[in-house]
Design brief:
The protein is α/β, with parallel strands linked by helices. Helix content is 41%, strand content 13%. It is globular. It starts with a strand and ends in a 7-residue tail after the last helix.
Length: 317
Amino acid sequence: MTLIGTSDLEVFPLALGGNTFGWTSDERESHAVLDAFVEGGGNFIDTADMYSAWVPGNSGGESETIIGSWIARRGAHDDLVIGTKVSAHPQFMGLSAANVVAAADASLARLGVDAIDLYWAHYDDESTSLEETVAAFEGLRTAGKIRHIALSNYSATRVAEWIGIAQAHGFALPVALQPHYNLVAREPYESEYAALVEANGLGVVPYFSLAAGFLTGKYRTREDIAGKAREGQVGGYFTDEGLAVVSTLDDISTARGVELATTALAWLQAQPNVVAPIASARTVEQLPALLAAASLSLTPDELAQLDAVSARVPAAV
């Protein structure tokens, strides 16, 4: 277990992504995945109020609703750390003060909890003054509706500005950053955010930790992803350099007797200030490889191999 940044939130070093709940996993399968995750030692669940509004027939909030029904069924949530996000739900767009409060109340109702452990500003809203947004998050915290504040998809400049505003007003500081970061997407995190994270004691909770499944090795050609639910997400990772990373992962994983996903997550967990990569499981059968990363320590040579091959992957334009 490890702490998220400067918070008192103690978590298993892997976060279960809730983006599949209500999308590629129905309620029954989602509950089974959540049960298995907790049974395997997990306690950190990441979702967002807009999951999964992109699915035809959905309106947003489906993931939170499924997590809420699971919490209600198990009858307790004190042993869990629940993170959710605001700014992109179709009915609660943006980060104005009124919207942040209304969206938080809606999330609390769907989740069926008294407080959100980690409340993420999902996407920056430059149409709203940052001072207004920061004050709104602080208001939720002092009201006891959220415990800690975190940022996702903000530029490094805006993260620094948020921190500066909070410091100037004596507000609680963000405790975590959620960047796009994995073996085939090391930039812009490493050059633009890593120093800022270190200086401010932020815990890093990367999303797309497995590159939407690309780093599991199940997609070796573009034909492998044709027509799949994640086709749009995975396609951007297909480069010769990216496939070389998968090949190196394959070699190390075979030698260690583990799945590629386990090795990819173990590399990420070994990076400075990374607390808990986010990984999703559509089915219970996909979970063991994810959970196993928490107990896999890669050798310096294995880390060096992965560092070298992944450094050749071109940064996304």
